[in-house]
């Protein structure tokens, strides 16, 4: 037998193996997908928190604008502002630290979180007793109170 004869050798063309399928992906792709999912959830939570803080800031600033433009400050309006500040504080600080605070403790917290002592010893004192008084005193300066509240809100809604 002559190895060079075409009838003696039954040669076939080389067949390559089949291409790997798209599904299921390799373990590295699963890991990357899980990492991206965690990253998206984390980014979504941060964006949602920022959106809520910005929206709360806009509401409080709008109410402060009404307070400053009003001719008289009512106890009801002071109670609404205090309530909005409390909601903002609950969004920003742990619930156990903020939720039970009232009166002087509430003012002390506001001072510690950006008031620089002007809630306990300045125009912010009205937040402790103002909602419970039948009429507010005439010496209350709505512009000084508004400036103090705006400063506290801006400090506590920064990212």
In short:
Helix 1 (27-69) runs antiparallel to helix 2 (75-92) and helix 1 (27-69) packs antiparallel against helix 6.
Description:
The chain is mainly alpha-helical. The protein has helices at 27-69, 75-92, 95-98, 103-115, 126-129, 142-156. α1 (27-69) packs antiparallel against α6. The relative contact order is 0.11. The model has no long low-confidence stretch (mean pLDDT 84).
Give the helix tally. 6
User: Topology as H/E string?
Assistant: HHHHHH
The percent of residues in helical segments reads: 55-70%
Cα radius of gyration in angstroms: 33 Å
- Fraction in beta strands: under 5%
Summarize the topology.
Layout: H1 27-69, H2 75-92, H3 95-98, H4 103-115, H5 126-129, H6 142-156
Which structural traits does this protein have?
159 residues, mainly alpha, 6 helices, 0% strand
